[in-house]
Amino acid sequence: MMYDLPTSVNVNGTEYEIRSDYRAALDICAALSDNELEDTDKIAAVLAIFYPGVDDMPAEDFQEAVKKCFWFIDCGDEEQNRKAPKLMDWEQDFKYIVAPINRVCGQEIRAVKYDFETNTGGLHWWTFISAYYEIGGNCMFANIVRIREQLAKGKALDKSDKEWYLQNKNLVDFKDNYTRQESELLNQWIK
Q: Which end of the chain has fewer CB atoms < 10 Å from its terminal CB, N or C?
């Protein structure tokens, strides 16, 4: 069992400080899902966000450094190849996630001070995720995920769920993330 909240990771025998605040982890998730970035740019963004001292890291450590970052994002769980339907999106759903997390944490988590440059303060990602796992009941986010799950499994919605879905389709349906080129092409077709 791991009782500590890590603030550094060991990469090929060298201990590197990490940005452990939940905002850094969410920025990493956003970079990884950015359709505008090439894979190499995504990796560079992940390293720059996660490691304050990335400029001092030898290039031969980058691959292991990315693995350690993903280990951290997965809260210390070893990589698992789970196939499951997508039920949430950190960027799209954050405004619905934050209220129940605030309730679990007993405070407004966005008000917790964090300085990205000095890497001080903040709410640890693992604490954030622990609170996230406690989301349930009759909150908006739990309802959104429940409807998404039923739709992903091909289950018919009952009358009240169908009515709620039709009224809140913009919350449940995932937004299309197009590259700039795809957006320009779509805009030409629409005109």
A: N
Say how many domains are in the chain. 2
Same domain for 22 and 51, yes or no, is yes
| Residue 144, Cβ density class (10 Å: 0-12 exposed, 13-18 middle, ≥19 buried) | buried
**Once rounded to an integer, what is the mean pLDDT over residues 84-99?**
92
pTM: 0.86
Q: Do 144 and 114 reside in the same domain of the chain?
A: no
Report the chain's C-alpha Rg in angstroms: 19
What are the b/e assignments for 68-104, b being 16+ CB within 10 Å? bbeebbeeeeeeeeeeeeeebeeeebeebbeebbeeb
Q: Do 36 and 1 fall within a single domain?
A: yes
What value does the mean pLDDT take over residues 115-142? 95
Residues 7 and 55 both lie in one domain:
yes
pLDDT at position 77 is: 84
Percent of the chain with pLDDT strictly greater than 70: 90
DSSP 120: E
